[in-house]
User: Which sequence fits this backbone?
């Protein structure tokens, strides 16, 4: 076996361990399993940070302040809005949700990527502010499964479930404008797909720096 095969430069490994300052936007109708998916991916793939949104919605029994959302009053939200502290914000089903402005330089220098969990309205606004975010839409396997999941989790009244479903239909019509669509049929498979997308995008965006590093190693070796 030649030396080249024996001694890899380790770039592939790097992509699996480090972020490169990318913004991933993950959208899905409520009940598609987005929270579990993001948690699963973050446990398995280093270099990822979750952007914790601010919301005026009340916390659900399983939600933690600062982890799932920052739960704030309408007046606090309004003040933040007036101070231009949000990258984007939207009203979803009567509540307000806002994404804090990310520090992109810091993100890159800390070798992290950021995941934004926002709806399709928010995505359109982020596209105007951020350079080349990667858009991923998570679909439930069927309308029937989505309805069952929303009923089973028991957070909403029947009226609210119906409202969420009609909203979900409108939201899903936007999915074709996203770069990737992942169907959440089996959670483990969806996690694998999302990890693959993130690693592939890291490789793609690091193309120039990988080539430069590679060339430098050859020059150092020859010199
Ligand atoms: P839920 O109340 O079920 O957590 O979220 C309702 C919807 O609000 C979801 O579609 C979710 O993606 C969206 N959402 C959560 N945070 C934000 C945000 O910061 N901005 C926008 N535009 N949507 C958000």
Assistant:
């Amino acid at each position: 076996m030649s030396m080249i095969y024996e001694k890899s430069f380790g770039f592939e490994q790097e992509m699996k361990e480090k972020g490169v300052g990318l913004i991933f936007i993950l959208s899905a109708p409520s009940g598609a399993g987005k929270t579990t998916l993001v948690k699963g991916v973050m446990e398995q793939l280093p270099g990822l940070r979750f952007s914790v949104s601010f919301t005026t919605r009340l916390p659900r029994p399983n939600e933690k302040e600062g982890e799932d959302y920052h739960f704030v009053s309408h007046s606090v939200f309004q003040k933040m809005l007036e101070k231009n502290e949000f990258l984007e914000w939207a009203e979803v089903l009567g509540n307000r949700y806002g994404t804090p402005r990310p520090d992109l330089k810091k993100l890159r220098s800390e070798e992290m990527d950021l995941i934004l969990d926002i709806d399709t309205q928010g995505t359109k606004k982020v596209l105007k502010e951020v350079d080349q975010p990667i858009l991923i839409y998570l679909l439930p396997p069927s309308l029937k499964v989505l309805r069952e999941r929303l009923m089973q989790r028991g957070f909403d009244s029947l009226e609210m479930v119906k409202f969420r479903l009609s909203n979900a239909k409108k939201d899903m019509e936007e999915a074709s404008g996203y770069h990737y669509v992942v169907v959440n049929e089996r959670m483990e498979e969806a996690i694998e797909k999302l990890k693959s997308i993130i690693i592939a995008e890291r490789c793609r965006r690091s193309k120039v720096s990988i080539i430069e590093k590679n060339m430098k190693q050859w020059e150092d070796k020859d010199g």
